[in-house]
Amino acid sequence: MTEFTPWPSLFGGGLIGLAAVLLMAFHGRIAGMTGILSGLVPPFSHDWSWRAAFLIGAIGAPALLVSATGVSVPFESPAPASWLVAGGLVVGIGVYFGSGCTSGHGVCGMARLSPRSIVATLVFMASTAITVFVVRHLLGG
Fold it and tell me: Which residues cross the membrane (predicted)?
């Protein structure tokens, strides 16, 4: 069972939107995590410094919040670790062929009314719904 957390979710979504707007305003770049990370893999992008800073902030800010407040977000998965790795690989392949991820297409692309991003996001969401239905109702997970 998933706990419903509307206020923290709204606040977190607002921060994601603010980060996307600020990155576009100050650097003219889309805040898609896949594109940001790809510039940190050799051969490095010429603008690797802001990419590294963005990634350090994305990891460091939650770590700082946990250390400052003592509040952590528990994570547990009923799926075996091998399923999580396989799922990550499938998502990585989809990101490659879809030319982006949910942050680039779903947050930034849809905000720009990009038809390609709207279609990509619809495919992400439909795939997710089908996967959850199959795993929970057909496979009994």
Answer: 6-27, 48-68, 80-97, 118-139
Residues 70-79 pLDDT 10s: 887 777 888 8
Burial call 3-16: b when 16+ CB within 10 Å, e when fewer: eeeeeeeeeeeeee
* pTM score, whole prediction: 0.73
SS3 content of the chain, % helix, strand, coil (to 5): 70, 0, 30
Q: b/e map of 98-128 (b: 16 or more CB within 10 Å)?
A: bebbbbbbbbbbeeeebeebeebbeebeeee
pLDDT at 21: 93
For residues 107 and 30, the answer to whether their CB atoms sit within 8 Å is no
